[in-house]
Amino acid sequence: MNLAACTSDDDAATPSAGPVSSQPAPSIDAEDARASASTLAAYRNYVQAYVTASNKGDYNAKLDSFVADPALLTVRQDLLIKFQQGLVTTGEPTSTPKVSKVDTSRRPFTAEVEDCFDTGKWDVVSKKTGKSVRSAGQTTRYVVIAKSELFEDGQWRIREVSAQRERPC
Predict the structure, then answer these.
(1) Residue 9 φ/ψ, nearest 5 degrees
(2) Per-residue pLDDT tens for 56-90?
């Protein structure tokens, strides 16, 4: 959905037939802008919570404020597998997310984030030895697509995350 407003000069010349409200109804574009800002915040919070949990080796981390199933299950499984294998992460990834799609035309509202995710300074290491387990030649900059949804409690949560390692950015 395009986030730019569409207006014409003819709209301004048309007289109003009914009473004028002191509170204009929010436009779809304003709703899209709120959805974009909220979904970006949810995505950034998800990434930060996941990085913190992964760096600590905390597979029980509280992530459900920002992530919902099926992504929540996948993230928890990933953290548990790392824990079972004695792996943690060190450092911080860099992330440059932007909203690529917004749909506020029907409930639940949805949005999609496209991120250039860079793990060059965020590594998976053996907790015991501190040595990297990264494969030689492994891609460290790739596109991540995250789909989000506005839940009934008013919170945006990430529902799907797809790391597209074959798509460098």
Answers:
(1) -65, -25
(2) 999 999 999 999 999 999 999 999 999 999 999 99
User: Which pair of tokens denotes residue 23?
Assistant: 């509170």
List, for residues 5-33, the tens digit of each pLDDT value. 333 334 333 333 334 444 544 555 899 99
Single pTM value for the model: 0.81
DSSP the chain: ---S----HHHHHSPP-SPPPSSPPPPHHHHHHHHHHHHHHHHHHHHHHHHHHHHHT-TT---TTTB-TTHHHHHHHHHHHHHHTTEEEEE--EEEEEEEEEE-SSSSPEEEEEEEEE-TTEEEEETTT--B-PPTT---EEEEEEEEEE-TTS-EEEEEEEEETTS--
Judge whether 94 and 118 are in contact, CB under 8 Å.
yes
